[in-house]
Amino acid sequence: METLAALSHGFSVALTPFNLMWSLLGVTVGTAIGVLPGIGPALTVALLLPITYNLEPTSAFIMFAGIYYGAMYGGSTTAILLNTPGESGSIVTAIDGHEMARQGRGAQALATAAIGSFIAGTIGTIALTFVAPLMVQMALLFGPAEYFSLMVLALVTVTAVLGDSLPRGLASLFFGLALGLVGIDLQTGQARFTLGIPELLDGIDTVVVAVGLFAVGETLFVASRFRYETEEIFALKGSKWMSKEDWKRSWKPWLRGTLLGFPIGALPAGGSEIPTFLSYLTEKRLSKHPEEFGKGAIEAVAGPEAANNASAAGTLAPLLSLGLPTSATAAIMLAAFQQYGLQPGPLLFDSNPELVWGMIASLYIGNVLLLLLNLPLVGLWVKLLTIPRPWLYGGILVFATLGTYTLNNNVVDLVILWIIGVIGFGMRVLDVPVAPCVVGLILGPLAEQQFRRALAISQGDVSVFVTHPISLGLLIVALLLVMVPFLLRRRKKPVDPAGQT
């Protein structure tokens, strides 16, 4: 009952005309960004961080949540019509969705993607509504030692999961931790690594780093890979509505995709890629027409798209209740909380219930708005694909530069922005994940504080981190996230007759 009362209060916040406007803006921008290839929700939220600096936090996060959900919707459009996924969760959708478009059934593919996204997003948001408070109750048992171990788990999560190479992930993480050391030590009052620059005494702004890595670096990388070739966009032909047979073949994949997407999205090793691939394999195994998969099976669009959107709701559960990011977009939203001086976790539910519950309620509203935007206006979103890419990339870089300068109105921020941006471009070229860097910058100083606090309480006894059951459990999970993939790779290596790998 308390949860329903809190959600009711959230709707009273989200349904105010001002917040409703930001929700509409968020889902509209998110859908547009999802449609444009190479520009995902992480880049968009990072780009808007400086612009929303003076915006009231609740309105800002309602807009960010709308962008996140909207990008998950919009990614299917470019995947189906252009065979170029707008974001990583739409990779699987492109396999059969584009084949449907080639056969003149692009409208039906887009319809099952939009309706499946709505159903999965709504069910996922209901699950988020009830799961997040349960996770908060667990987090209320945490002390400094448990919080330190939780932050270690968060750091390991993004390092081990968001990338193909653990060493590269660690390199990105340590770069972020090093950036987090710049500024004044809160306990000793001593300046650290400021290089005599007064503007660095307050530390390197998280927003500047996020915009540099995700907006400048990512845009430079995508632009460097751009080829001046004409892309074939398949026009929508015939009826734009699903037939009775299409509905019959779609509704079960929608539900199964939702059941896969939410729990996997909430896991430290989750994200949107794993549940979408699992949904595709599940539907192929259960289908009466497995031979159609890869040739335009509507189930292969319905299931993965549902899993994709449900995983977005799953990602928000550990982010809001524990401050644990499980995707690149969640890492940027963590930076957004930092911008407002907020820390996601159990205290946020008590100190800022309007923000948390207003944001959750806005997800229900945003889902309805997205359905209304995507089904009737699909032709409008298709036209976005005709925007010249050089104009798009140039506009993003100018927007990022101007937005960063407005944060503190100093040139030092611009110098840092472009240095970080060039480093971010190099990281993308070398396939080094950028999310661990942002999370290291945000959580590194907080983990240091909790570590010192735990040692002060235990009078210097480091065993406090393994004698507390919750802390020990979190550290074991973190260790398993590092060791299990390593051991699995070792087992897959071929063994020669001499017994050497």
TrEMBL record:
Keyword Transport: no
Pfam families referenced in this protein's UniProt entry, alphabetically: TctA (PF01970)
Keywords annotated in UniProt: Membrane, Transmembrane, Transmembrane helix
Residue ranges of the TM segments: 20-49, 61-82, 109-132, 139-163, 169-186, 316-337, 357-378, 390-408, 464-488
Keyword flag Transmembrane: yes
PANTHER family: TRICARBOXYLIC TRANSPORT PROTEIN
Name of the protein in question: Tripartite tricarboxylate transporter TctA
Protein species of origin: Skermanella stibiiresistens SB22
